[in-house]
Description:
The protein is built from 10 helices and 14 strands.
Amino acid sequence: MLPTKKTDIRALDLTQLQQHLAEMKEPAFRAKQVYQWLWEKSARSFEEMSNLSKDLRRKLDEHYSINTVEVNNAKISSDHTIKSTFRLHDGNLVEGVLIPMDERMTACVSSQVGCSLTCKFCATGYMDRKRNLNADEIYDQVVLIDQQAKQNYNAPLTNIVYMGMGEPLLNYANVLKSIERITAPDGLNMSYKRITVSTAGIAKMIKKLGDDGVKFNLALSLHAANDKKRNEIMPINEANSLKSLEEALKYYFAKTKNPVTYEYIVFNHFNDELEDAKELARFCKHIPCKVNLIEYNPIQFADFINAEGDKIDAFSNYLKSQGITTNIRRSRGKDIDAACGQLAVKEGQ
Length: 349
């Protein structure tokens, strides 16, 4: 049955699309052509689908919509990072970031409008969660940021991180569908190994990733390996204690054999002492992992301060002495509020 009101055509999988076009009395191969235009060529209108008849393009336009995402505005940082505010088809706004480096071009994409997790150090956590993004809205962010990389730096995207606005594992189905379309040969054909999904730590959903045998990389925003401290800055820890996360991560690793990355913001006089490093090292013993130590990026809602450089270095050196692969991640795009933890749509954007 053809829809009586316009339906987002990208919400249909190939089988459903074939059924719809069969009802239009179109040959079976047409569905594959349309699907290719939508996901491989990233068409933004039916008019672009030049190997379809004008009559079919008209009928598609009559019954379906392509709910495209638009760049509302973009800012370029002094370090060449580009932050974009994206307008969704319903007027909601989300942010995404292009992080250019010598050896890679990384897109940081959002998975929700706002966030429900209220992490104390993250600007998005001070916004209400309005809704989940659809898979095609996440996909569009990747396409648009890839265009920015090519236009501004003459290089395509190499990596994608789901570290923008929202908690990806609370939008599980759409996040996984977006990754399927980004990695599929009849999609953007990117490698799973180039994609990282970051979670604040939802134990049952980490186990589900294991059950689903995902191939992309998983990062856990840890920031404290001590329940009391983690409860203080990440209320989600009250229902997802370090013990439950440990069990979930062991389960995930047993199923996927994928090592995990722990993200750890080093806050001044909060989690930057040797004892904190020892707690983190003990947590790291559970499964193969690496640690990214992250600079804190200030936001207007919180009064945390980044740890001193020598403290971060000492912290890193201790972890390395315990055989843990450790990187210190420097902030990018801080001057345009594009750095980690700073994404939040402001009035007037």
